[in-house]
Design goal:
By secondary structure, the chain is an alpha/beta fold. It has a single domain, classed as Rossmann fold (3-Layer(aba) Sandwich), CATH 3.40.50. The protein is built from four helices and four strands; from the N terminus they run E-H-E-H-E-H-E-H. A four-stranded parallel β-sheet has the order 2-1-3-4, sandwiched between helices. It is globular and about 50 Å long. The chain starts with a strand and ends with a helix.
Length: 121
């Protein structure tokens, strides 16, 4: 079974936002066991989620983990992303597509927040 990861961001009209997402994708690839790592945006940027899924499936992935780069369990997490995944599962029934949890409230993120405070204190 060939596994892939898609790091899914919200997307932004600001070009530097997608560049940052791509850097996260590169870091995930370098620190994980997954040979196929893509990034995607829910809106504004390309590739979007269906395009990224097409790409990893063409690369041979039979299991795809979508990791949402979202802090909150908002409407995108509750409705938009699951609906998009459901549509993609219908088009690709032979591929196991799963959604990881959003980032949420995690003590590891607090360390980053504290670092950012220290940078300007």
């Amino acid at each position: 079974m060939k596994k892939a990861v898609i790091v899914l961001g919200h997307g932004s009209k600001a070009p530097q936002a997608f560049e940052t997402l791509k850097k996260y994708g590169e870091m995930v690839k370098s620190k994980s066991r997954f040979e196929i790592v893509e990034v995607a945006s829910l809106q504004f940027n390309k590739p979007d989620l269906p395009e990224a899924l097409d790409s990893v499936i063409r690369a041979g992935a039979t299991r795809v983990v979508i990791v949402p780069f979202f802090l909150y369990n908002g409407i995108h997490m509750q409705k938009d992303i699951p609906e998009a995944i459901k549509a993609e599962k219908t088009k690709n029934p032979e591929v196991d597509i799963v959604l990881a949890n959003h980032l949420g409230a995690d003590n590891r993120l607090v360390d980053i927040v504290l670092d950012r405070i220290e940078e300007v204190s």
